[in-house]
Amino acid sequence: MSIDTATAARVAKLARIRVDDDALPALAGEFNTILGFIEQLSEVDVDGVEPMVSVTPMRLKRRDDTVTDGGDAGSVLSNAPDAREGFYAVPKVVE
């Protein structure tokens, strides 16, 4: 796939980036270089390669998946400007 100056101008407009007309050929060239790198990546054989999250081996910290009441509701509601009957009270917005 090749990007021409018209497509580069459209991408710049969609990204809300002002690009002078004389800089559009260079921008199109940069886009083409990036697309060339992406095409090179698609040629790599990744069959049998496990996906990884990080370059260093590590395990995520895990906790038990248990249902709780969330702790102390009173201390949470103490920060609210208006709380009634154990809930946040908010102004009515729908008639």
From TrEMBL:
What Gene3D superfamilies does the record tag this protein with? Glu-tRNAGln amidotransferase C subunit, N-terminal domain
Recorded catalytic activity of this chain's protein: L-glutamyl-tRNA(Gln) + L-glutamine + ATP + H2O = L-glutaminyl-tRNA(Gln) + L-glutamate + ADP + phosphate + H(+); L-aspartyl-tRNA(Asn) + L-glutamine + ATP + H2O = L-asparaginyl-tRNA(Asn) + L-glutamate + ADP + phosphate + 2 H(+)
Q: What class of enzyme is it?
A: ligase
Q: What GO molecular function annotation could you give as one example from this UniProt entry? A: glutaminyl-tRNA synthase (glutamine-hydrolyzing) activity
Q: Name one GO biological process term.
A: glutaminyl-tRNAGln biosynthesis via transamidation
Q: What EC number(s) does its UniProt record assign?
A: 6.3.5.-
Q: Where is the signal peptide?
A: none
Q: Does the keyword Hydrolase apply?
A: no
* Pfam families hit by this protein: GatC
Protein origin, superkingdom: Bacteria
Q: Keywords, A to Z?
A: ATP-binding, Ligase, Nucleotide-binding, Protein biosynthesis, Transferase
Q: Record's family?
A: Belongs to the GatC family.
Q: Which PANTHER family match?
A: GLUTAMYL-TRNA(GLN) AMIDOTRANSFERASE SUBUNIT C, MITOCHONDRIAL
* Task performed by this protein: Allows the formation of correctly charged Asn-tRNA(Asn) or Gln-tRNA(Gln) through the transamidation of misacylated Asp-tRNA(Asn) or Glu-tRNA(Gln) in organisms which lack either or both of asparaginyl-tRNA or glutaminyl-tRNA synthetases. The reaction takes place in the presence of glutamine and ATP through an activated phospho-Asp-tRNA(Asn) or phospho-Glu-tRNA(Gln).
Q: How does it assemble?
A: Heterotrimer of A, B and C subunits.
Name the UniProt record assigns to this protein: Aspartyl/glutamyl-tRNA(Asn/Gln) amidotransferase subunit C
Q: Identify the species of origin.
A: Roseivivax isoporae LMG 25204
- What's the name of its gene? gatC
